UniProtKB/TrEMBL annotation:
GO molecular function: ATP binding; ATP hydrolysis activity; transmembrane transporter activity
Record protein name field: ABC transporter ATP-binding protein
The family this protein is said to belong to: Belongs to the ABC transporter superfamily.
Single GO BP term: protein localization to outer membrane
SMART domains attached to this UniProt entry: AAA
Keyword Membrane recorded: yes
Length: 263
């Protein structure tokens, strides 16, 4: 087993909507290890976004526990949560939320600028992240001068700028065509492998989910299945490739092992 990064215990979330209680998360237990890349799938309304928002400290659960890097979140003040969010988590949403009046480079630097870091320190970092997502030549373009796929790649570079331990992505390719989506999916794998960043991606793209070493399926606010499988990607098991802890753990368990946890 690897080192747990996210530990969720009996997580519940209830909304009151027009006087009625809506139980959106109904007792979720999930552990995600450092270095894992995990797909979350499930029908619309299953609670995937709510779950991501809770582990991303963007929303508070009704009950249950979430620990991130050993720190219990549910007892922390909102300013402490904001500090943890900044330090540990990068987000990629379906819509990129880039600032239209800033260029790609400035958008990538923005989380660091907000923290008061200098442009001098951030600029080389942002440039190298833009190069990593294949946009070295687009640094001076504003979002309106980029394609949808390029905008999402800028959003991914921005999510990486503070070296988060965890990236939470909510249908990041939900708005892109098939070919552009595939390139973006590959980038998630590359980031996971190169930076060791733990990644949780909500997706409706079955091919993408199927290519993941772990797929968590949600249904009606619960985890219906949690499947691990050997990495199918070309080169994934080559000795020359640095292996993520999760994949090392997988191969120790025996390649091709698939386990399903009933809800
Ligand atoms: N702020 C809210 N108030 C009331 N109901 C909400 C709120 N946010 C989400 N819901 C409801 O919770 C359910 C799960 O939503 P969501 O987590 O967005 O699902 P998914 O991302 O799997 O499609 C939906 O029925 C949705 O309408
Ligand atoms: Mg959603």
């Amino acid at each position: 087993m690897g080192t747990p990064l996210v530990v969720v215990q009996d997580l519940r979330k209830m909304f009151v909507h027009m006087g009625r209680e809506l139980h959106v998360l109904r007792g979720i237990d999930l552990t995600i290890d450092q270095g894992e890349i995990v797909a979350m799938v499930g029908q619309s309304g299953a609670g995937k976004s709510t779950f991501l928002h809770c582990i991303g400290t963007l929303d508070l659960p009704t009950s249950g526990k979430i620990s991130l890097g050993g720190e219990e979140l549910t007892s922390l003040s909102s300013s402490k949560l904001a500090a943890i969010r900044n330090r540990m988590i990068g987000f990629v949403f379906q819509f990129h939320h880039l600032l239209p009046e800033f260029n790609a480079l400035e958008n990538v630097m923005m989380p660091g600028m907000i923290q008061g870091r200098s442009r001098k320190e951030l600029e080389p970092l942002a440039n190298s992240l833009l190069a990593e997502v294949g946009l070295a030549e687009r640094a001076s373009h504003r979002p309106g001068e980029l394609s949808g796929g390029e905008q999402q790649r800028v959003a991914l570079a921005r999510a990486l700028v503070l070296s988060p331990k965890l990236i939470l992505a909510d249908e990041p390719t939900g708005n892109l065509d098939t070919k552009t989506s595939e390139a973006m999916h590959q980038l998630f794998f590359d980031v996971n492998r190169k930076h060791g960043t733990t990644i949780v991606v909500v997706t409706h793209n079955m091919a993408f989910a199927e290519s993941m070493p772990r797929v968590v399926r949600m249904r009606d606010g619960r985890i219906e299945a949690d499947e691990r499988r050997a990495d199918q990607r070309p080169g994934a098991s080559q000795a020359s490739e640095p292996e993520s802890p999760a994949r090392a753990a997988l191969s120790e368990d025996g390649e091709g092992t698939v386990s399903a946890v009933p809800s």
